[in-house]
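User: Design a sequence. Structure:
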């Protein structure tokens, strides 16, 4: 009798394992709301959801709501600048096609040694060049051209291959300059032990951090340093989960 019970139990466990494996590989929909644990009404400006299996990410809305599709076995990293990141997995939950979660984030409490991160002599020239980023599209058009009085010239400037090439080349030069200035800033951060990047990781991290030209110009040294530190923590976590 006892041996029969063992046999029945073994068959049951095998069936359960097979069903669980099947459900883990099924795509499910996860919706939810992420909020500040201390102040639920506070908006989250750059909410990110990153699938640690695929390395792919997406942004949530500023009100904290999000919607993603993932495998039930996937792990989702929830992150926002200035908050401790959270990992979410549905692996051990009851199988459903749709899930809804409310996820609190706790404010990050990072203390830096000084409010003034670097001596102005170290970064002044970099920040001066940052303020020069950008280009004026009108520099690549004839001045004073009116679409009504001179429609042929206006259309030529707007749509000709030559003019488009000029504007495209200017955009590429500006983008290259932005990346070079970011690399110089990150080199300072590495030198001051704020982040730790290998020589072959700079370009990859610059692409991952996705710092806009506008933010680069407007952010203070302190705010930008906190932003990069948060991005770096997520970057390292993603690389560790890919191994």
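Assistant: Done.
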């Amino acid at each position: 009798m006892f041996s029969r019970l063992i046999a029945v139990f073994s068959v049951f466990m095998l069936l359960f394992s097979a069903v669980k494996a099947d459900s883990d590989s099924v795509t499910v929909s996860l919706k939810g709301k992420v909020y500040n644990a201390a102040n639920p009404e506070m908006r989250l400006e750059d909410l990110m959801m990153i699938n640690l299996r695929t390395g792919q990410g997406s942004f949530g809305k500023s009100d904290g709501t999000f919607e993603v599709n993932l495998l039930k076995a996937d792990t989702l990293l929830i992150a926002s600048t200035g908050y401790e990141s959270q990992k979410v997995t549905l692996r051990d939950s009851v199988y459903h096609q749709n899930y809804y979660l409310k996820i609190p984030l706790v404010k990050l409490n990072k203390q830096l040694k000084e409010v003034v991160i670097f001596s102005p002599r170290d970064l002044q020239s970099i920040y001066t060049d940052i303020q020069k980023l950008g280009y004026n599209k009108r520099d690549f058009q004839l001045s004073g051209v009116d679409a009504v009085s001179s429609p042929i010239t206006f259309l030529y400037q707007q749509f000709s291959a030559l003019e488009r090439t000029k504007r495209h080349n200017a955009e590429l030069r500006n983008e290259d300059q932005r990346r070079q200035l970011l690399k110089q800033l990150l080199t300072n951060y590495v030198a001051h032990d704020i982040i730790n990047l290998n020589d072959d990781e700079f370009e990859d991290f610059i692409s991952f951090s996705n710092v806009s030209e506008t933010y680069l110009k407007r952010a203070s040294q302190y705010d930008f340093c906190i932003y990069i530190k948060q991005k770096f923590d997520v970057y390292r976590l993603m690389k560790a989960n890919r191994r």
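Residues 129 and 181 are 8 Å apart (CA to CA). The beta strands are 27-36, 48-51, 57-59, 65-71, 75-79, 86-89, 98-105.
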